[in-house]
Amino acid sequence: MGITRGLVITALFGIVLFLLIPAYVPRPRFIPGFAPPPDMWPRTVSMLGMALGILLVGLSFSRKTEAIADPENASAIRGDTPLATLLTRFGWTILAFALFIGSVMLLGFLLSSILLLMAMLLLTGYWRHKVVAAAVAVALPLVLYLFFSSALNTRFPVGSLFRAIGI
Amino acid sequence: MLNDLLVAFQAVATIENFLIMAAGIWGGVIIGAIPGMTGTMAVTLALPFTFYMQPIPSILLLVALYKGSTYGGSVSAILIKTPGTASAACTTLDGYPLAQQGKAGKALNMALYSSCTGDFISNLSLIFIAAPLALLALRIGPPEYFMLMIFALTTVAGVSGRSLLLGLVSACLGLLLATVGEDMYGSFRFDLTVDMQSGLAVAPVLIGLFAIPELLKIIVFRNNQSHKPMQLGDNRVTRDELRRSLKAMLKGSMIGVVMGAIPGIGPSAAAFSSYGEAQRSSKNRENFGKGELEGIAASESANNGCCGSTMIPLLALGVPGDVITGVMLGAFMIHGMTPGPMLFENNLNEVYMLFIGMLFSSILLFGAGKATMRFFSHISRIPPGLMAPIVLALCLFGIFSISNSMYDVIVLLVMGVFGFFMFLFAIPAAPFLIAFILGPMLEENLRRSLALSRGDPSILVSSPITWLFASLAIFVVVVTIRQQLKKAKA
Predict the structure, then answer these.
(1) Contact with chain A for residue B223, Cβ under 8 A
(2) pTM of the complete model
(3) N or C: which terminus of chain B carries fewer CB neighbours within 10 A?
(4) What CA–CA distance (Å, rounded) separates B322 from B433?
């Protein structure tokens, strides 16, 4: 775990340092006075992050210093559940999030929220209590929608589908 | 001065003023407790109403909302691990574990006692030491600011997880994310989309980092345990527990007063610094992060300790320390009062009335907290399998309403997934958050210092104040490494 984590952290900061900063942090041709350029700070932080990642990898090799780098055994959180099951549940959740974002412009914020809430209740296993779960999934977004629209004048996306049928 | 204060007392002690302050406190507590709704939002929304009010009641309403929301943030932090405000993020570290142990009421009570203590001490400091503290704050330039923030960051990185290294990694990630958007000289960085040019707002990052990973944990590591509702159980804070936490509470209040008086630092950094100090000096330091009342006392006293002292630079120098005091500056000016040294000459009566009103609001905060606690405590009885989706809905609507933008909602969900990976890798979220909040100021002050010194980095250790903060940062790092090595040997 310690080595994997160290490598992931090093790679993450490495990508920022060698790929993202050159591409997305432009250096102006002229900088007034002695002000440092805009890429100075992200570069410094990325280099520090990479150094910490390498240090984490290094410390993980020695049992004596491993405790500093890897304070807890992350596999304990997983329990006996097979990795495939965990990944499937995670995948469904991400898919639900992505569908929610994608459907807001089509179905509107309210209906998309109701559907997302239903999906979440299904995934957490609470859908067994069908009546309570369905009531919460429908009533809560509706109450929040009315509250924010009237009290704070929030304009939630109505959705092109509803707009097309004149609602 | 005493005579003036007595006259102000008589002027403030009216039913109308009490009702206004009570409404402000209650409203603030409720708004602060809702994830996604912040004290800034509460104060900004109330500002138009103050146009039609007398000057002092209007400022008292805004102050009451500010105080109420600062305490209210701890309610959701303790009960659903979703800090209502950034300054309550530190309270989740011990508050939520206590709620899981069936001691939600105890945690809420301790948060209330600490908030009121911090608030009261902060108000007293505002009355008696506003002028000297404002002068000290005035002497803090870019290098001093930079070192102060480095100290705050090392403290947070050292205490909020079990490994200093992972805390520092987390802080680096937060610092890096804070660079997204426009920098101080108008250059755009990491603007992968047009929306990203405006950077990332604190609220979606904060809530995404703390609330959404809880939902993901329940879904991914689903087990029968997660469907058992938490019990209210042990609700009272015993005299012994209160005595044990008193030191952390008083120290936290003082840390809050000092850090609140420095413009821009704010209650989040104060809460984490106080937490770090409490952990370092406590006999029960092993229990921190597992449900230690001293941890709640330290963070809550410090964040509410800022409420009064953030008014110090505003009143004494006319410099708003944060967005909320910026809004208050507007309220002062609407009513024909200009904060700054002349305020004490031209509007002395109003200033004393404000001081007295703020003291009253501490007492009202206690009453409002006690009255709402029973109601809020019932939240912990909702099973997590139902609660987590409810929190998600609150977050989605709350975050969208901040700027009427789907971009913030996307940031919320992406940060949630990122927070879940941080949890899997045992990287603490707190240093990330505090680095994200302080990051822009840290960079700005570093770049300003280097511009002033024509690129010479020795400016960062050029004054006694910078030396003080640098020494404190090194001290924290050394003590943390020593403690971790000792633990590793054991």
Answers:
(1) yes
(2) 0.76
(3) C
(4) 17
